[in-house]
Write a structure and sequence with these properties.
This protein has 493 residues and is α/β, with parallel strands linked by helices. It has helices spanning 5-9, 40-43, 51-54, 62-66, 90-100, 111-121, 124-131, 138-145, 194-203, 218-223, 241-253, 272-280, 285-290, 300-304, 317-323, 336-344, 366-379, 397-405, 415-447, 476-481; strands at residues 18-21, 24-27, 72-75, 151-152, 167-169, 172-174, 178-180, 208-210, 231-235, 259-262, 328-333, 349-352, 387-391, 410-413, 460-461. Strands 7-14-13-12-11-10-9-8 form an eight-stranded parallel beta sheet.
């Protein structure tokens, strides 16, 4: 039997809460207290069509997996459903105008250009989630500016006719030493979410790291792979270890070639842009009238991460090694002592990372930690015992080259590909990756190196890297697209 919008609208309270997703109705009344993001985010859409809010945050199989069949109420005649007043929202109309006149893809000459366009054309909540750093966003900005404190010592009169910047990562041969790092909620930026990144990674023969908190289901992203394409998986460890074990062993069965355990997020950071944009979001008329003050401090991040286990510790590493044969890499290591512990626990790699500045603010940039770690590993004769990756703030091929000169195997890149995807879809991702390849070829030539094994510490000068008070030429491009915290907004009268 097909339900009408009018019938659904009657079930708009805690006592009886029905929602519509993709043209089907669901009774989520009993599920409300179990929802990881809390009941209020659902109550905002009680009796209404929740598809637009639901889609980017939940893999497609979520309702089938977690809502009992008897709560699936059947199809809805969508012609009878009240249109969301958002459609004539002036802000949305302005955004549509900006989309109409956005720059063509050929006008994007570097990764920052994608950020500039994405900021103008993305939905506010999507831009807030992707661009957010933690607290005052000092680390997020330091990640990028740290690369400007490293200077090249180029060689000249070297035959640089033939350049080869391919390399291997965890045994996989890749065209260029970067991978697409794990970034959650890909469908906030594009209806096909992480699968767009899969296709871009395939075309450019680079590795994609699949996030635990992807919008697409894990299997959708793996099915989008075109062999012999390599994928890794990023893991947020669930307090319920049985769930984690199933996820890890399923990933191994699906041919995932690296398990990247995120270790810098026992609790997700305070991303105030994300929280602020949720605060601006109007609550449903139910909450306003029903006195349910919707929990608007729940940015997307907080709403989706309540399962993460803060008790994760070094004593869990042997258990991970007992449940999988995949190489284990710790993502989010931030000091040499922990790299030495990682080696002693027998993991295959670490990512020196501060989560793109989204976790502990005023943590050091990954590249600065790299400059601390590698000399110590070489001194101890341990630099070949582990693969070291770094991420955060990589926006130019010169950043990639600097990281390799300092000893990284490769770098992870996050936001640039999200922005390229959000603004221009797969074409944007492909263009962004090609720009990096073009820059890589040029800059390898200009520093006098023809292959990555020639990228050694003597090619760079890092004396300014750890002094945090050095002025460097203003990063105008970065500053032009930087979206400062806008502070509390005056309430609309
Ligand atoms: C931009 C971004 C980064 C996220 C990310 C989501 C976004 C939108 N998310 S998060 O929601 O939980 O914070 C993840 C994540 O799922 N897991 C993870 O390990 N890192 C996550 N990261 C961090 C990411 O893997 C890299 O460490 C970081 O993006 C590198 O910095 P750039 O963005 O400057 O390249």
């Amino acid at each position: 039997m097909t339900l009408t919008g009018e019938e659904i609208a009657k079930h708009n309270s805690k006592e009886s809460c029905w929602v519509i997703v993709h043209g089907k109705a669901y009774d989520v009344t009993e599920f409300l207290p179990e929802h990881p993001g809390g009941p209020r985010i659902i109550l905002k859409y009680a009796g209404k069509d929740a598809t637009e809010e639901y889609e980017p945050i939940h893999p497609p199989d979520t309702l089938d997996k977690y809502l009992p069949k008897e709560k699936h109420l059947g199809d809805v005649n969508m012609d009878t459903v009240e249109q969301d007043e958002k459609a004539d929202d002036p802000e949305e109309q302005e955004r549509q105008e900006r989309i109409k006149y956005m720059p063509i893809l050929d006008q994007c000459f570097n990764l920052m250009d994608f950020e500039a366009v994405a900021r103008r054309v993305m939905k506010k909540t999507a831009w807030a989630y992707y661009s957010s750093g933690a607290d005052d966003e000092i680390t997020m900005r330091e990640n990028h500016s740290a690369y400007h404190k490293i200077w090249f010592r180029p060689r000249v009169l070297v035959d640089v006719k033939n350049i080869d910047f391919s390399t291997t990562m965890l045994g996989t041969k890749v065209d260029i030493p970067f991978y697409v790092t794990a970034t959650a909620l890909g469908k906030l930026g594009h209806p096909e979410g992480e699968c767009v990144l899969t296709r871009g990674a395939h075309k450019h023969n680079v590795i994609q790291m699949i996030p635990t908190l992807a919008s697409c289901s894990f299997d959708e992203i793996v099915d989008a792979r075109r062999d012999p394409q390599t994928q890794w998986m990023q893991l947020y460890v669930n307090s319920n270890r049985e769930i984690t074990k199933n996820i890890v062993q399923h990933a191994e069965k699906r041919g995932i070639k690296g398990l990247f355990i995120t270790v810098d997020a026992p609790q997700l950071g305070r991303r105030e842009k994300d929280m602020r944009s949720k605060f601006d979001d109007t609550g449903s008329n139910v909450q306003n009238s029903g006195g349910d003050n919707v929990d608007r401090s729940q940015g997307a991040a907080r709403a989706i991460s309540s399962f993460i286990d803060p008790s994760l510790s070094w004593k869990d590493i042997p258990w991970f090694k007992s449940i999988t044969k995949m190489p284990i890499i710790l993502k989010g290591v931030q000091r040499v002592e922990d790299v030495l512990l990682a080696i002693s626990h027998g993991v295959q790699g670490v990512v020196l990372s501060n989560h793109g500045g989204r976790q502990l603010d005023t943590a050091r940039s990954g590249i600065e930690v790299l400059a601390e770690v590698m000399p110590e590993l070489r001194r101890l004769g341990m630099d070949k015992q582990i693969e070291i990756y770094v991420d955060g703030g990589v926006r130019r091929a010169t950043d990639i080259i600097k990281a390799l000169c300092l000893g990284a195997k490769g770098v992870g890149i996050g936001r640039p590909f999200l922005y390229a995807m959000s603004a221009y879809g797969l074409d944007g991702v492909n263009k962004a990756m090609q720009l990096l390849k073009d820059e890589m070829e040029m800059n390898m030539r200009l520093i006098g190196c023809t292959s990555v094994d020639q990228l050694t510490p003597d090619m760079v000068d890092t004396r300014a890297l750890s002094s945090h008070n050095t002025g460097v030429p203003q990063d105008t491009l970065g500053l032009n697209v930087y979206d400062p915290l806008s502070g509390p907004q005056p309430q609309a009268t």
